[in-house]
Design a protein that fits this description.
This protein is an alpha/beta fold and 251 residues long. The protein has nine helices and eleven strands. The N and C termini lie far apart (59 Å).
């Protein structure tokens, strides 16, 4: 028993060191532990100034902050509370005009194994197009939008488009039932739902739009003015005139 216990304990102890390759070290943003320790020391000496400098260096602000850290309501600290920024702009727009705009932003593999890549520039065009559609339908800053989509590039586009116009998005897993979707629509007071006609899983088509219909028919969802339907597959789905946008084909 003693030798067996010792054997188990020896497995739990790991003393080996696996250094990164020279190429990894060369590409790293922090060149080594000495540089890392120096950054930690800099942050400890002036953590407000340290994080303010990084915030201004790496984040684009539409309105610069004048307050760095507010500790008056501890433990509910606030950073940069009077600054303003747009998350979508910082994800996409700030890369336009730089070498990054033509780099791959998303690699999407669909259910059938087909792989599609989108650059930052291509993704920005898609996001801007959908953001304009949301605005044209009267969705504005502070409105809540429900996203009930399969795993797809359209899900990313929907989230980015909402952030771009200041709408608040709530993602509901595409496997949830109509009742679960209905409850979440009521909880957030959503004004729109973004969904697809079907999703594909294991080569089978699974209805999403029909589930949205069932959820809205449960009552209490009068706040929903528009349902956006992304045509994930070629199969038709029921569309209600005046409430739902025409489906379109995508990735």
């Amino acid at each position: 028993m003693t030798s067996g216990t010792s054997g188990i304990e020896s497995v739990l102890i790991e003393n080996r060191v696996f250094p990164p390759s020279d190429a990894t070290v060369k590409a790293a943003r922090i060149s080594g532990m000495d540089a890392y320790d120096a950054l930690c020391a800099q942050a400890e000496a002036d953590y407000e100034g340290f994080w303010a400098a990084l915030a201004r260096e790496h984040v684009v602000w539409s309105k610069d902050f004048t307050k760095i850290l507010d500790e008056s309501k501890a433990p509910f600290y606030t950073w940069f509370e009077d600054g303003e920024l747009n998350a979508s702009f910082n994800c996409l727009d700030k890369h336009i005009g730089t070498p990054t705009e033509n780099k791959t932003a998303i690699i999407f593999e669909s259910d059938d194994g087909a792989v599609t890549e989108f650059t930052y520039k291509e993704l920005l065009a898609r996001v801007s197009q959908f953001a304009n559609a949301l605005k044209a339908d009267g969705i504005q800053q502070g409105d809540r939008v429900m996203i009930y989509l399969p795993m797809s590039v359209e899900g990313v586009i929907a989230m980015q488009a909402c952030a771009r116009i200041g709408a608040i998005h709530s993602v509901v897993f595409g496997g949830f039932s109509a009742h679960a979707l209905h409850d979440r629509i009521l909880d957030v007071g959503a004004v729109a739902v973004i969904t697809s006609n079907y999703q594909k899983r294991g080569g089978k088509e699974l209805p999403l739009k029909a589930i949205v219909d069932d959820a809205l028919e449960m009552g209490g969802c009068e706040s929903i003015k528009t349902v956006y339907v992304y045509q994930r597959t070629q199969s038709p789905c029921h569309m209600l005139a005046g409430r739902e946008s025409a489906p379109r084909r995508g990735c």
